[in-house]
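Q&A log
Question type: sequence-to-structure
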Amino acid sequence: MRVGFIGLGAMGQEIVPRLLAGGHQVVGWNRSKDKAAPLLAAGMGWADSPRALTQQSEVILSIVTDAKAVEAVALGEDGVLSGMHPDAVFADMSTISPDASRKVSTAFREAGHVMLDAPLSGSPVTLRQGLASIMVGGDKAAMEKAAPVFLSIGPKLTHIGESGLAVQMKISINLCLMVEVIVFGEAIALAEKGGVKREVAVDAMLKSVAASPVLGYRGPFILEGKMPDVPLADVTLQQKDMILALDLARKQGSFVPLAAAANEMMNACRGLGIDHRDFVTAFDVYRRLGGDNT
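Response status: OK
Response body:
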């Protein structure tokens, strides 16, 4: 299929090669063209605007930083909506609030076009492993039309429900993921202070019933010298998603005490000046509060 891809950051750098490998013709756009260089070398085409990209595409995907960026690329003067063909499908894969997503999808619907919310659950690691999953909110027939594109990205595709419900689910999943990673650090810090060597504690945890895919690739980051220079998701990025969860809970009247505690751990990371690291660095907060300042 002819695919337009908007947003060539860390996730876009992993998604586009999978689309190319799946046999799709891909044209990309990003605010800064320099990020496109490796993808252009791999065979991706380039468009000078989201509108120009959309005019060449059957399926348009975007994955950008926040709701403001989604609105800009989708509804801006030279945005996706201005270049949509009648039978094209636009799917935004960004993690934004359900209300923000519905605002964009409503504008598309009123103009006679289809917009899906299609967030991805995974990381650059799971994308490379071919294990990412995609959740879709909105028109199911449109999802099925775009399915060959989605399934080139990851093997698990789920229709969650009406517009906005896929991002609702993604925020809920990220809440669970963040709490899980933080409590992993809490448990390892407890074991280590009691005398268990850190590497032994991590190994035992990852062999236990408490192990999970995210802990499998992120847990070892807390070992000496293993924290990656380029984080999978730094504290600021991950906290953005937790703030989305807390705001959603406030609006719904949902009780989320663990989410609130996890957010405070991210605040503590920022206070210690370690927020540039992958958010599993919350372990270091527990370690320092336990008296280890090495």
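Response note: The chain has two domains: 2-162, 169-289.
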